[in-house]
Amino acid sequence: MTAAATSIAANLAAVRARIAEACERAGRDPAEVTIVGVTKTHPPSLVEEALAAGLTDIGENRAQELLPKAEALEARGLAPRWHFIGRLQRNKVRGVLPHIAALHSLDTARLADEIERRADRLEGDGAAARDPLPCYLEVNVAREASKDGIAPEQLPELLHEASKRRHIAVAGLMTVAPLVDDPEQVRPVFRQLRELAHAHGLEGLSMGMTDDYAVAVEEGSTVVRLGRVIFGARRS
Fold it and tell me: Domain span at residue 50?
């Protein structure tokens, strides 16, 4: 086992222990929480090490990183569950769609239309039928101008639009909390997303990153998106 693999395995064990502690405080089962390892800027070799350590779900922010990594791993007979977690431009849907198991950043009806159109075309080209793509609707709970996502009051309309698409399954809601010094400061953000989800009959909550995931789990997160705490600092 390489030094990198040892580090990733140890980091992943520490993350799982912290999630278990957060679940115990909240009266939850740790099995309810999926860890998505975010490998932005890291090479396919580190993804392979993470898979060997027991991680099954891998997240990418950019199509130009996802596609070569997915192809490199497929060539080695490895097939993680890929999650696209960044902003997905409509002109990238065609390349990304065949690879991903979930999208965490659906925020417009136009993007939903493009997913539907490309999925229809894949079927028409003879691709194997696949289940609808699980999509999390991205909500900008904190209303930060620098962040993507819809305002909370726009959720009913987007939920209605997404639910009409045959190739989309609304899995829940996603948010990116503000960067703060104390994770307790963003607890209200996570709580509001949970309340929004419950108000609309949704169970999935993609919320929580390296600096705040324990608080997110306490507030009901079902998916945490973790990069630095597992893989170390991003590479330039």
Answer: 3-231
Report if residue 159 sits inside a domain: yes
Contact 119, 97 (CB under 8 A): yes
Beta carbons of 51 and 80 less than 8 angstroms apart: yes
For residue 77 the two structure tokens come to 């007979």
User: Tens of pLDDT along 201-215?
Assistant: 999 999 999 999 999
pTM over cut 0.90: yes
Q: Are the C-beta atoms of 106 and 90 separated by less than 8 Å?
A: no
Q: Count up the domains in the chain and report the number.
A: 1
How distant is the alpha carbon of residue 17 from its chain centre? 20
Confidence of residue 126 (pLDDT cuts 50, 70, 90): low
Q: Where are the beta strands (DSSP E) in the chain?
A: 34-38, 57-60, 81-84, 100-106, 133-138, 168-174, 204-206, 223-226
Q: Is residue 236 part of a domain?
A: no
Is 153 domain-assigned?
yes
How many angstroms separate the Cα of 19 from the Cα of each of 171, 185, 208, 226?
21, 19, 11, 12
Output the domain CATH number for residue 198. 3.20.20.10
Indicate the SS3 state at residue 234.
Answer: coil
- Distance in angstroms (rounded) separating the CA atoms of residues 148 and 227: 19
